[in-house]
Amino acid sequence: MFQYVITVEPLGLLYGSAGAFLSPANLVGRAGRRFPPDAPTLSGLYYNGASEALRRELGEKLHLAGPFWAEQEDPLNFYVPIPWTRVVGEDSSDEWTIADHHWQRTDPDLKPAYRWQPINSWKAPLRNLQKNQARKDPWQFVPALHPHLKDDERCVPEQDGLFLENAAQMCPGTCLVYLASHPLSAGWYRFGGESHVVQIGCRDLPERSKAMALLAEPIDRAFALLTPGIWGSNRFSLRHPQHPDFPKPVLMLTEKPVPFRYRIAEQLGRGRYAVPAGSVYVLSQPLDQPWRDWNSDWFPREGHSYKRWGCGLALPLEIEGLQTLQGV
Amino acid sequence: MYTVFTFAPVQGFIEKSRKLRDLYGASIILSYLTFRLTEKAEAAEGVQVISPGMPNVQEGMPNRIVLSGVVTVEEYQKAFFENWRRMLREVRDWIERQLPAYEYCWRDEWQHWGNHAWEFFWGQGASVPEAVNDLEARKLARSWTGINWTGESSSLSGTDAIAWPGLGRVVDVRSRKLNQEKQQIQLFYSELAKRLDPQGEGKFLAENEQLSIPELTKRLVTRHDLARSLGMTELEAGFTDLAREQDKGTWTGWLMGDGDKIGNYLKDLARSEDGGALRHFSEAMREWGRSFARDFAQEKLGRVIYAGGDDFLAVFYRPQKKLLPGEVIDWLCNFPKIWRQHGQKVTVSAGFVWAAPRVPQRDVLQHCREAEQLSKAAGRDRLTLRVVFNSGQYVQWTCPWEYLKTLMERRNQVDWTRLYKDLAELQARHAFEENHESADPRVALALFDIYFPRQGEYLNAHRTLVHKDKFSGQAINSWISDLIRVGWHLCSNT
Lengths: 328, 494
Known about the structure:
The complex is a heterodimer.
Chain A lengths: L3 E7 L28 H9 L4 H10 L2 E8 L7 E3 L4 E3 L4 E3 L1 E3 L2 E3 L11 E3 L7 H8 L5 E9 L14 E9 L3 E7 L6 E4 L6 E8 L5 H7 L5 E4 L5 E2 L3 E3 L10 E5 L4 E3 L2 E2 L2 E2 L3 E3 L5 E4 L17 E2 L1 E2 L8 E3 L12
Antiparallel strand pairs in A: 1-11, 1-13, 2-11, 3-8, 4-5, 6-7, 9-10, 12-13, 14-22, 14-25, 15-16, 17-22, 18-21, 19-20, 23-24
Chain B lengths: L1 E7 L2 H5 L4 H24 L4 E4 L12 E5 L4 H26 L8 H10 L2 E7 L2 H12 L6 E2 L30 H19 L16 H8 L3 H7 L21 E8 L2 H11 L3 H24 L2 E6 L3 E6 L8 H15 L8 E8 L5 H17 L4 E7 L5 E7 H8 L7 H13 L13 H10 L3 H7 L11 H19 L3
Parallel strand pairs in B: 9-10
Antiparallel strand pairs in B: 1-3, 1-4, 2-3, 6-8, 6-9, 7-8, 10-11
Helix pairs in contact in B: 2-3, 2-7, 3-4, 3-7, 9-10, 11-13, 14-17, 15-16, 15-17
């Protein structure tokens, strides 16, 4: 399904705010920080200047997934969220295991300090992550002021003249990464809002790459989310798929929901709540299939299934003690 | 048999706020929901409320309940949601009564919020620690259900649907006229604002606000008539909101804190006997919260939003006379004495944010929480002072409470402007490295010594004052330059 790696290299700052919070009365809007952009944000670039036929094709078949990030010289070994079974702290690390049908860990006070790991070390021992592979967010927020000038004078109007944006600045040498089913022409694009310009690159994701092999690996009874998981009906968002074919989760490691909403071609999608990336599911029965083969009916549908946006993209996970847990 | 109950979201519920009134509303609702559960437990035969202590007092209820005896969890869960639904019903009825001309299609949406606004957690065990562990294990999987929405979002949180009479009307998406809808929403809110506040002082709803169902509820339960009919704590008569976002707005101070290692402390207490020590602790903390709120109000520096368990939030502001940061610093230096009044062996970590007038309240609360976390990370029993500007930029400094007093009592002898200039000068000459692990702290310590006699020497000998385990020259350089930046902003105009 995913054959391309799309890299997004900022030329300057990137848009790092959720629009709704920003108003003249609410200048800073730190609470509205939202970065990196979810996969649907990228889709608009595909339609730019596409032919009618291509648009139709994209409308039916385009699949995206992300956000991830990478070091610019090594985009195929992109960074994905560390599963929450692994807690990588500043000086030590810890792991959740299953014992007696419950989650357990040895150092409950340890808080995670690192959020990302390279996909190629998905199965690496925790010790290796701790030592040299786990990373923090490679961006920081910087306030950027956008003055609106009067038409006939070089000064700011008295009302609503200033707009302060929570821009995001990527660390030098890093870029955002998305997986895609379709190629995207390399070049400069406006991306994410407030006219920030990025350089898009597009590379093949080779069949024999480690990432590809992982994505093709069937999920047994445990998996972790690489992207926000959206489940439920049009009315409610839920923590796991409700479809009768989807085995019931017996254990989960997750957190509070995060809002998920996108705007495409002036159309504002439904506001939903997502299970945050990194969440871990342990199922009563094996699934025996990789995410790409999951039934698209397991995902909510708004015209198309949310599987198109790579929602709930999952990789198999090994958890100590899982075999002791009986199916229900 | 012991049972523990709690519910979520608590932080998020409090933080989604624009006005001081919202903070009160959120805090009152949380206390009320706990209060009704303890009330139920008190009335039940063979059930004892171990925590919170003083179960008959509604204000400042912490949102974790420990009961002993045989308890049917489902009954309590049901009662919890019934109380919440009753609150929503009263608020909805009030609006529909005030504005009867509308055709209301929003009943289903209120019901959804009645069922899905909260995650309710419980745990049981043969001892209190066992019950708490059981609860923590269940919490790992969470239990939320999100209510999806279409159309524009609440102007306050940026998520969730705007509550208005047409919410829930079944319309074909393609025939939906968003512009028309927008006008109807605006009209509804301007009429609602008039009803809430006939004098037009903008107390309840500002012109451009469009709130979601829970946000509207938070705001409306601060009305006396609604609070009374629900049996909730009423906002006192002289309540005045903060004029933060207007041009005349002044700087305000925000203090958020909580007891250190409370979880461990409670586990120790619970282990010792049948919950008696825990009950005693809980009573002591609640009693402290009550007197803290009362005494703080008497000092006329601001007010306490909540203080009940081991955590608290207080706002420093004065509507009539400008509040000087120096007054607040003096009060903060004295705070450890106030904290110790509860007589428990628990220290406190806190974050104090001195916020510029246009920094949104939601952001201020996030800054408070981050500042508090910094105090914890540096070794606890500390205060972090953070000055936040309108641009969103900030400066901050963390210090142990006792040492804060030592330093700040001399602050009036210090020429902060000169000290600030000296710092800039030294930094320009690279004599004040903050970026290298192996940085030399001697220049910084010498500068510190000049303005705070003998303190450079003292600090060098007691490096844990800076951080519990970062003793590098870099850490000292940063600590001293942070002190100078924060001190210049907070102390130079007193």
